[in-house]
């Protein structure tokens, strides 16, 4: 009976350790995404250029996503968070969201928008030319 209880207790301890990340991992910010980022997401008919203009304070990130669509500007404000080296965001209009892993001056991951989730890759740039001014 004691052996069975020991096995059950060990299983509970190990399962609870695997269930979620340690709170330190969730609150630690190891990268700073402040600045301009340029790249793309998708491929073929769903290929789109993507630009992010970001400002980070602690783990909170605000800024703008610019997705030029068919020759017109597609600037929308966004809010996001950094947790470790992972940047997650949602546009305030609800048109896109993303989860990107940051490694120095590069971001890779997934961006979801009205046509589904697509692979994204961005690189930090010095300045960000805009197709239109961000809304005020």
Mind explaining what this structure looks like?
This protein is an alpha+beta fold and 136 residues long. It has one domain: Lipocalin (Beta Barrel), CATH 2.40.128. Helix content is 17%, strand content 48%. The chain has two helices and eight strands. It has an eight-stranded antiparallel β-barrel with strand order 1-2-3-4-5-6-7-8. A hairpin with a 2-residue loop joins strand 6 (96-103) and strand 7 (106-113). The longest helix has 18 residues, at 2-19. It is globular, with a radius of gyration of 19 Å. Residues 131-136 have low confidence and may be disordered.
Can you list the strand order of the major beta sheet?
Answer: 1-2-3-4-5-6-7-8
In whole angstroms, the N-to-C terminal distance is 69 Å
CATH topology: Lipocalin
CATH architecture: Beta Barrel
CATH hierarchy class name = Mainly Beta
**Radius of gyration over alpha carbons?**
19 Å
Main β sheet profile: 8 strands, antiparallel, barrel
Class based on secondary structure composition and strand pairing = alpha+beta
Mean pLDDT: 80
Categorize the overall geometry.
globular
The helical percent reads 10-25%
How many runs of DSSP E, i.e. beta strands?
8
Count of individual domains? 1
SS strand fraction: over 45%
What pattern of helices and strands is seen along the backbone?
A: HHEEEEEEEE
Total number of helical segments? Answer: 2
> Which stretches are low in confidence, meaning pLDDT under 50 for 5 or more residues running?
131-136
Can you tell me the CATH superfamily?
Answer: Quinohemoprotein amine dehydrogenase alpha subunit, domain 2
């Amino acid at each position: 009976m004691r052996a069975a209880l020991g096995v059950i207790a060990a299983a509970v301890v190990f399962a609870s350790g695997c269930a979620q990340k340690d709170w330190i991992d969730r609150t630690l910010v190891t990268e700073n995404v402040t600045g301009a980022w340029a790249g793309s997401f998708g491929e073929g008919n769903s290929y789109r250029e993507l630009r992010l203009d970001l400002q980070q304070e602690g783990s909170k990130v605000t800024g703008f996503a610019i997705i030029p669509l068919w020759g017109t500007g597609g600037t929308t404000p966004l809010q996001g968070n950094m947790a470790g080296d992972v940047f997650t965001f949602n546009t305030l209009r609800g048109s896109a969201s993303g989860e990107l892993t940051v490694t120095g001056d590069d971001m890779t991951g997934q961006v979801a928008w009205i046509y589904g989730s697509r692979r994204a890759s961005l690189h930090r740039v010095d300045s960000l030319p805009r197709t239109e001014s961000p809304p005020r």
